[in-house]
Amino acid sequence: MKMSSFLLLFLLGIWHIAEGRKKMFCYYSSFAQTRPGIGKFLPEDIDPFMCTHVIFAFVDISSDGKDLIGFNWNDVGVNGLYSRTLALKKQNPELKILLAVGGWMIGSRPFIPMVRSERNRKAWVQNVVNYLRRYKFDGFDMDWEFPSTRGSPPEDKYRFTKLMKELYEAFADEAEQTGRDKLLLTLATASGSYYINQAYETSEIIKYIDYMLLMTYNYHGQWEKVTGHHGAMWKHENDPPGEKGELYTGWSLDFWLNVGIPKSKLIVGIPTYGMSFTLANPHQHGLFAPVRGGGRMGKYTSETGIMSYYEVCENIQKRGWKSEWIDQQGAPYAYGGDQWVGYENINSIEIKAKNILKRDLAGAFVWSLEMDDFSGSCGEGKSPLISTVRDILKPYGPTGSKSEWGLKSGITEIVTSTTTHHKDDEKEKFGNESPAWRGKPSYKPRPTWKSKISINQEGKPIFVGKPKPAWKPKPSRKPRPTWWRATPTPSIEEETSRIETKNTSRSQPSYRVITKQPSAAGSIDCSKVGLGIFPDHASCDYFILCLPGGQQTYRPIRMACPEGTRFDRDLSICNHAKEIQC
Question: What's this model's pTM, rounded to 2 decimal places?
Fold first, then answer.
């Protein structure tokens, strides 16, 4: 009897330790199967022991708002992406695989008819349960970006709470009735007050999720007039006051913790990609340097204003870009010619992961697996950023399974030499507050890629221009073009949603599609500029959307700005007409 009691206590102890481990969610963008060369990413490229949870992104919502439909032409079937991703569980039975719906590119449009009525929500919720069980997923990630914005009416803020409650309760009821493990429900959540205030009943929404995946990234990007790091850990002394001064990880964490989200539910977002700009003057390349738009699209990712980590390191290693460190924000950037990119490296990732431990939060999530150097082309081993998070959080315990990821190389050495005055014991001491040394940022240019020269600690930062980053809602950079499906696609009219304009009332007027055929969209060659929004050189009243079509071509669509606005070529948005000079 004593032995049985001892065994029971022992097993309960093991269970408690397992439950208390940090979680690591990793998004997998299934669209990456279409990228060329080293950018092509398939389910077989996922290390089954890297993450505790893999999130398959994305699934679509049917046009009637009552069901889910596959996003890719090859999602389902014996050799489909679903089954190939779920096959990872054969190697690691502890791995959980979730399915995500939404993303920035899909906007609010498909959610609006679904959430509008209780009957539609009920039908959709039941079909979500059926879909997840049919394809053997372990849970569902809600990634509506964002309720009550981008064409979604203000009432949707409250309807969204009801939707999450209905999903949460349906998952619990289904588990009780069938005896299966409960489906997990996660929420990819806004990190800035602009979207938070519009989209959520904050103290209510946290009741109906298993985990909050807080998108602590994309604080800055190509919609602004100056350079800025999209994943800053701390506030910079030159950040403007007010809402624009809240755009850093520490603020976002404090906000949601003050709302009441339990630490055991809070998962912190970490980007594995960079946000890029085209500099107005190549000789002005520091933080807050003036820009004239997003950076040129990457060789493999083909999207303006964004670069994968392996594209960043390729530019540094092979094209002579210089890498610098922002002490006050705990993050690096790189520049070459008129191009500038804020990105993450092993040092900045280490700071973010240790902060999660320091604050005893539930864990981390990364966007995304395929934006890290998953092939090891940079010479740091496979997935160096994500593996750094894993090695610090130890989601499978101190003796958990672990793959060999190769040796460290020059890309780590250069940044390490930039931060040699950041002692390990100092890093261990800080939580959300930055360490004392953050007040001495160093921006001294590095002469060569492999250089071992240390940065002069007395060097002073040089900030170009007054720090007035133009506000515009930030994308989550989860590219999910809906036009890629091989199945019949809806008409252009059905695909229209909304576009934000910069104005004091924060209203979001609709826009009109002017052309239905790519040939009518002017002289823009989408195959050269890639996915994104571009000016119509014929008129400031219009702009061009480049969107993926069949066979990996990009089709241009000419759009009209809302009444009273014109296209701002500097910000790539429709702005007040009186502020635009054409």
Answer: 0.74
